[in-house]
Amino acid sequence: MKIDVGQTEQVTLNYDVQGEGPDVVMVHGLGLSSMKTWRFQVPELAKKYRVHTYDVRGFGQSSNPSGRFSVSQHAYDLHGLLQTLGLKQVILIGFSMGGWISQQFVLRHPEMVKGLVLACTTSGLRPEGAARFIARAERMEREGTAATVDEQIRNTFTADTLANDPELIAFYRREFLDEKENNSRHYAAMFRALTETNFTPQLGRITCPTLITCGDQDNGITRGNTPTDAAEILHQGIQGSEFQPIRGGGHYPHLEQPEQWNALVGGFLGRIA
Fold first, then answer.
1. What is the DSSP letter of 20?
2. Which alpha helices (DSSP H) does the chain contain, by range?
3. Where are the domains positioned within the chain?
4. Are the C-beta atoms of residues 126 and 222 closer than 8 Å to each other?
5. Percent of residues, the chain, with pLDDT higher than 70
6. How far apart are CA 46 and CA 62, in angstroms?
7. d(CA 31, CA 200)
8. How far apart, in whole angstroms, are the C-alpha atoms of residue 206 and residue 228?
9. 69-93 in b/e burial notation, b at 16+ Cβ within 10 A?
């Protein structure tokens, strides 16, 4: 369904809700740039929770009338969505780019977040990481998705997934190449925007129960110097947080190891919901 949110500027967000129970909101990443990334999570979580998923502005089937791309703008949109839905407090799950958005949101609206899951994301880029993001944006602007898809897939999934799960790889390839849902200009603009945000100095302000996870073989661009580097920084900065990597997972462990991911996140939700 489509929902219009915002006051000074209205954006139309593609949105879905399934299940009954405590409210869980899931925020997707880039590459597989829509709520389709949660294909293995929503059916399981919806058995116990009311699960809200949406496409962030400018991706999937959501509009972006202003053409603006920033973590801050996405967080404003998320707040507008929750206000429109009448949700006062939610459990927030953010993956990769969605983790940036979720951190911005909880720092602005701590009273609205009962619990937080940060998956395969970072609180901020080191200079060398920012340089990689800019290089990715420039290449996407020059060459588009078709020229970058093979490298993207190699860096996103583990060797085991590449060898043994052709259906998942084909699904990801289709979504990455879909210019309607993963527009190359929008992708590049968002990559540039991600270099401008660093929450590391503010992590101590996040006080809600927090689970941090990542693939233990993550070779994605957000990972830091090692597969678990960025996650460890988040864990050190957020007092009382839990950290558990997903064995055999790359940058999309919720797709590569869904049973393990669902059990980990489901256990966390059960403890706080």
1. S
2. 42-45, 71-85, 97-108, 127-156, 159-164, 166-177, 184-194, 229-237, 253-256, 258-272
3. 2-272
4. no
5. 99
6. 23
7. 24
8. 20
9. bbbbbbbbbbbbbbeebeeeebbbb
Antiparallel, parallel or unpaired: β 11-18 and 113-119: unpaired
Bigger pLDDT: 53 or 219? 53
Number of Cβ within 10 Å of residue 3's Cβ equals: 15
Count Cα neighbours of 106 within 13 Å in the Cβ-side half-sphere.
Answer: 30
> Tell me: domain 2-272, CATH 3.40.50.1820, correct?
yes
- Any idea how long the chain is? 273
Helical spans, DSSP H, in 4-111: 42-45, 71-85, 97-108
Q: 162 vs 59, 121, 198, CA distance in Å?
A: 26, 22, 32
Tokens of 178: 């879909």
Nearest alpha-carbon partner for 199 in 128, 123, 133:
123
Helix-strand-coil split of the chain, %, nearest 5: 50, 15, 35
Q: Summarize pLDDT for 46-64 with one digit per residue, the tens.
A: 999 999 999 999 999 999 9
| pTM score | 0.96
Helix (H) or strand (E) segment spanning residue 24: strand 23-27
- Cβ distance 262 to 45 under 8 Å? yes
d(CA 78, CA 90): 11
Q: Using an 8 Å Cβ cutoff, are 249 and 217 in contact? A: yes
Tokens encoding 28: 């997707």
Q: Is residue 8 scored above 90 in pLDDT?
A: no
